[in-house]
Amino acid sequence: MSEIRFINEFEPDRTFTYDERIALLRKRKVAQTEEKAKAGGADEDDYGLIVQDKFDYKLQPNHPNGSIYGYKAWTFNYCSILKQHPIYVDALDAFSAKGFLFLERLRPKTKKWNPDYPYPELQAIFDKYQVISGIDNCHHFTPDLQIGMELGWGGILAKLQEQREKHDESHHEFYDAEIEVVKNIIAFIYRAADEIEACANEERNEQLSENLHTMAQIDRNIAENPPKTFREAIQWSNWFSMLSRTYNRGSAGGQLEDLFNPFYEKDIKMGRLTDDEAVFYLACMFLQDSRYWQLGGPDENDNDKTCHLSYLALDAADKLNIATNLTIRVHDKLDPVFFRKSVELLFKNKQGWPRYSNDKALTEGFMRNGYSKELARKRVAAGCHWMCMPGMEYTMNDTVKVNLAMVFQVAYQDMMANTGLVKPSAETLWDYYKKHLKIAVDATGAGIIHHLTYQTKSQPELILNLFQHGLIEKGVNITDGGANYYNMCVDGAGIAVAADSFAACEQRIDIEQKLTYDQLTQHMIANYEDQDGEYVRQMMLHSERYGGGDTLGDKWAVRISQLFTDLVKDLVRQHKDNPKHVNFIPGLFSWSNTILLGSILKATPNGRKAGEPINHGANPNGGFRKDGAVTSMCNSIAAVQPGYGNTAPVQLEVDPQITNDPDGVDKMCAMVLGILKSGNTLLNINIIDAKKILEAHKDPYKYPDLVVRVTGFTAFFAMLSEKFRQLVVDRVRAVNGDACEE
Amino acid sequence: MKQALITNIQRFSLNDGPGIRSTVFFQGCNMHCTWCHNPETISMKPVLMHYQNKCIGCGRCFSLSDPPEANRIEGGAHVIDRKKLKNPEVLAENCQASALVMSSRPYTVEEVMAEVVQDKLYYDLSGGGVTVSGGESSLHASFISELADACHEKGIKIACETNMALPWQKMYVMLKKMDLIMCDIKHVDSPTHKKYTGMDNQIIFNNVGRASLLGIPMIVRTPLIPGATNDISNLKQIAEFVAKLQNIECYELLNYNPLGSSKRVAMAADDPFEDARPYSRKDLDEIRKELEGSGVRIKIS
User: Fold this and answer.
1) CA pair distance B255, A200, nearest whole angstrom
2) Which residue range is the domain that position A365 belongs to?
3) Which of A247, A575, A678, A730 has the greatest CB tally within 10 Å of its CB?
4) Does any CB of chain B come closer than 8 Å to the CB of residue A678?
5) Are the C-beta atoms of A476 and A482 separated by less than 8 Å?
6) Mean pLDDT for the stretch of residues A346-362
7) Strand A485-493 vs strand A393-394: parallel, antiparallel, or unpaired?
8) Domain tally for chain A?
9) CA B30 to chain centre
10) Cα–Cα distance between A452 and A567 in angstroms, integer?
11) Domain limits for position B277
């Protein structure tokens, strides 16, 4: 297929209802997804990216290593892309704005960081402890689209030009780059309008031709000016999304009601919009990109933000029924009818949406960093496991990972190298663990500071900069002081592997004395494949696990989480003199690095063999309990929450038969509330038929529209590599207890 | 300290009463229902379960077997002669792969409480609680009576699943402390009842009638077993009986649960319902239609 123009597909006199158009658009999306999967797939979000063969951009490097660094090179290449990027047109759709590539990914993979700013000493520590430093990563903070919707691209351009005049030459590189970018964006949208108009003239179906004419006119309206109607507002946000993704995959979204309800209410009042139309526009928005939207949650007076538009958003997602990243912020005053409806849709569609966040834990946690409740409430769900205040903070969310399991391995090896000095035991091992985790976390903090200091020399945030409060007035890139706050995310990964390893050592060696540390070490060196190796592995594997409920594994997980939290918070003290007033916030999340972070980890005392993936996020390892009880798992995850407003999400796989009971939905509502009220911060749920997922794992094209929530993001199952499909399958097995085996 | 043999404490249990529950399965039953989906709980003593798919072939069970010939290889398969084997507990204890496990172990009330109290929040939010099941729960009436007191002290509701086939005086101790009684009437015809369960049904009708006067909500249930209990006439007569009782929440029909088959394999026991399958939604709807008008709310699970 690889087409980017969909006109003249239907007879001239055929008419379409909105529902018919949604169904046809969905069909096209599924076909495009299958095509994308066959072209190699991707272990990540869908992004609404279109695979096509009409346009291929060749990067123009400004460095001998073939990469691009700094304002000028990024501006030049981005603007070049905009000048050439073809316009995707679908006459059935309400909107234009589909993108084909990410500039940031056109760079050589290993040349993202500017080599003029090396960090060899830190890199040595990162390698030793397998820290993913986040250095060179981009976006992973949230723009405030409201800024753009109020100013429009023309207003932003005027503001940039005005501010340039007020600043000295040291800021001109910043302003010149941003001005050039915005001028090209405006030109791009005008060009899109012209090309869509041409398609409208070509389209022989009367209804669809009229749709294209309207689409073109809307693009002309908003190329410079702010949007005035509901449809214009969504089109504006779709353009933003495509333009930001094309630059560096930058995230977008926010509180859906805050952004669009004023337009919706105004249009309804003026009689120029119906609910059917609004649902169609929202469905087309969800189709355009799988970005994160938050629904519900409390306003500044603790009242619920849920409104009629919130229901329409659920209706739209239901009708479209593809990968949709909707998060419902649960709080005491959340509309119970809305909440129940969301749970019904979760089980009806089995597509991994919506997911649920816990306002109380997130708000109270974030306030522990010294923020007001009002600011804490502004942190909306915006990524796989993360929240962000739109337009106010720089975070590096989800890009920094400390492999807690690798730290365990280093600590264990250090202890065993010193058996002449210390008697090995779980407590001795803990002393070594504390020492090594501090080294790893301190280096991670230093890496973040290094990133903040030099990131502009590698990759300035030319798009997201424009939607930060006060940044244009300051005239600097967001990493150079342009943000109001710096709340740097530091995640721990592999907590279950580390906790279960401590527990297995304590139980089997220290308490039961079934073997010695020397014997265990020998078995681990042999990857449990020596004589009696498998027997010992099974013994360690069946120790008291994290997730079992008041087990030794649970106890160790809490200790590790507390230690990690204390060490991350100590980074604030260490870097208190940094002029950016950098805060560090701990979380527990691996993203989809479970395979990478497990790949070079050797065999561990919990019976895990060398190279096997680490546990997912804050979830326990598979087989944590014979019955796989959801409640037990979730209580354990609640107990390890770091508690500063970043998350340690629950990733839950639930069998759809749960709701066969007439009271099933009520029970699931209680389950969701229970998981959050017990102190958890974020809940991702997959409703997966174990048999179906096993079939789809063998033959991904058998169910091309099967969507799963992989980590925080949802994705078409067929798009995932075999290893990633295996991860989801393993999680399904874990909560089905022995049921998958018997 | 009082103890009882418990096969499993199943948390996040959604099919053993209202809301989200923790179900405590007791060892031992006075009936021998041929379709039982928890066949390992019928014996009054722990049973050795053998899950061959988990075996890692370490051979320890052969070297520890007393007498040695109680564990042997026949036709390439590991065969355990349970009648001869004197030390099943030793074999299970030394099987690290959990291929050999004993069906139950003794628990104190405190141990059960330590487990079930962890989900109190979920009980409160869903109207759930603890369910005692089995086996036959009323065989452990005294233990369960103490467990009920401990649950109530923590504000946790407790329900029982019982066959109602013990003398009333023995059952009463436990029943009076329940917040919900779920009991089975499997067949109205006493010889048929005896054929499938090993017991007459007279005492059951008698006890169900008495229990309905305790002022405690009750659910009377019939498992739908193909060829055994599924006769519409049987179900209608039970429904009509139930309709005359007090404190009845509903008459509940439990779809056939094939879970027992895999367990019977693990116990090397015969499975007379090997070919039986759960009823389809359509079949269940037809059964429901037949029973409508009997004067009691019908629930199908």
Assistant:
1) 58
2) 252-374+649-689
3) A247
4) yes
5) yes
6) 93
7) parallel
8) 1
9) 12
10) 20
11) 3-32+104-300
